[in-house]
Write a structure and sequence with these properties.
The complex is a heterodimer of chains A (391) and B (306). By secondary structure, chain A is α/β, with parallel strands linked by helices. Chain A has helices spanning 8-22, 40-48, 62-74, 85-100, 125-128, 143-157, 187-193, 217-249, 273-288, 306-313, 333-342, 365-377; strands spanning 2-6, 29-33, 54-58, 78-84, 106-111, 136-139, 166-171, 180-184, 210-211, 257-260, 267-271, 293-298, 300-302, 318-323, 350-355, 385-386. In chain B, helix 3 (55-58) links the parallel strand 1 (47-51) and strand 2. Classes of the chains: A alpha/beta (391), B alpha/beta (306).
Amino acid sequence: MALDIVTGNHAAGYALSRAGEANRRALGAACGIYPITPQTEIIEYVSKFPFTKGAVVPVESEHSAMGVAIGASLAGARAFTASSSNGLAYMAENIMVAGYYRCPIVMVAVNRTLGPPWNIWADQGDTLMMRDLAWLQFYCETNQEVLDTTLMAFRIAEDPRVMLPAMVIMDAFIMSHTQCETDLPDQTLVDAFLPTCDVPHRTKVEHPTTIGGLVWPLETVSQRLEVDEAMARVPEVYEEHRQRFYDLFGRDPGAAVQPYEVTGAEAVLVATESIATTAREVVKRRRARGEKVGLLKLKMFRPFPDEQLNELLAGVPKIGVLDRNYGASVGGIFGMELRAALQGRGAGALVQDYLTGIGGGDVTEAMVEEVLDDLLARTRGGRPVWKGVKS
Amino acid sequence: MSSLSVYNEALDHDFLLRPGNTNCGGCGMSIGLTMFGRVLEEAHEKAVMVIPACCGIVTAGAFPTTSYQTPVIASTFAAAPAFASGVAAVHRLTDNPAHVVCWAGDGGTYDIGLGTLSAAAERNENIIYICYDNEIYGNTGGQRSSATPPGARTTTTASGKREPKKDVMSILAAHRIPYAATLSVAHPEDFKRKVRHALKEKGLRFLLMLSPCPTGWKSESDYSVDLVRRAVRSGLFPLYEVFDGARYRVNAAPDGLDVAEYFKGQNRFPMDSLDLSAARETVAKESARLKTLAETWPAEATEGMA
């Protein structure tokens, strides 16, 4: 283990490369790489890594980057890539294929505003557009969490009970380009944490199969249902590997849903990624003043942890969701999904959505204070509240 | 010979395309697939195939059965060379001797997948890319593609296509790939030799095969092989090969058969409005161009011949 001061991109590149290297004991590692701001440093890191048994294919598009990862995964290798924003949109068709081909690919995605107009700053709309394509999604708050979660993502994705691809997500620049103290584990530790990758349905000339031919509706139902069942197993598998990670690295990679001062709270904020850090500071300050407020950080968004959310938020009268994303006409996507998850469960809570930091605007402590004031004063929920609007 | 003994004989073969598939009668793609499979079998070599959206993946049939006796990955329409690059990378890392073969139609090659193919060619990926060119989007019912020849009626060119056919061979040769060749199912010895050479070569090898589609071409299904022969003889589908994008060999020069002899067996060509003189001119120019290339930059006598 070595403490170093690195960016989120560096942490991601480090984890992807070490995880790939760990599979030198089996069929190796392969990735397709293509640049896009702000994730480019990740693929640069990967391209320079001296793999013992690894191939880095510098392709001509994000669509092909995922295509290479799918081909490599179906040939049995550990496969990964990284992308962002419009790159993810361009890749979308193959992102879906990776999911429904049950390829345990890991992709680090740096949240960047989808254009147009041309905007390189943080916004979650890109990865949220991919929320229904049979991928696991983990939204990270710190560079350390990016590194740890990337390693966890391989472990969970390749677990035979799951066998689904996973996306590890961080904010553009606020995390991708900000250096923080990060513990970079040795290869031996990564080797110990990650068993060799075994894709059971990989191509074998001695046992030829056709992957992805024609099916009828009935088989499609079965296939979708199998994905649903695999998704349902993730929370338990996650906790198992989280414990394993802790035992080995001496550090908690973080729960799927992370409550802070939620017990007995009258109002709870729900936040993701770096916004959670800011919100936690505000909550801490208000708690010190005796206000009954709390924070719930949502890390795992796919599968959607609705049981855990219902449990943790049971009896909380007011919930405010901080969404750094905008679904046209409906508002924030996290807010929409949370409202749907709580609906009909007897919770009866007020759920209010706040659009904060859309297009990469700063989500300041002052903004979170305003949000809390608004939430506490509310007697009923309403349309999403836009914050940071130019006056 | 009883039908049972024929069946037993069939089981002795290491088929690429198994008997009993549901492809149309006279499908040029099926003939080519069978011929390609025979060459592989004779060479005692294996292949993992990547097939994008096209009749070639419908060929597999409905899950859980498949007509392919070799591993097949269905890729997205534009991405067969990308999927194949991933497979090829792992084969290289693991010393897996199986060839990685893309099997794609003209829509996936000339149109939607051209950028992906160009990139794989530029990287010189260790892939054999075979395009079966039926000059239409056959799987969707016969729409124009950039491979559709001028004058041909398709469901989206009701009065015949106006633009020339894209010269995809020149595009691929311009990438300086180790091998590019055209294949004819009416010239089995030439077909076999070229596939064998492709199997021995490394890097991106591009093979273009004219593939009659009786359904789309409105031709008789027992006429397909003859049609390809006529296309070669008239010069509409020249048989040639390009080594390293630099050295040319013409395998069968046109023998004077008039282009009308190719067109008239296909109801996709409206004979009353077809510009035969333009077609003759195109053939003359293309034949002269290839002849000049092969004379100016000839292939070495032995290359590709072993």
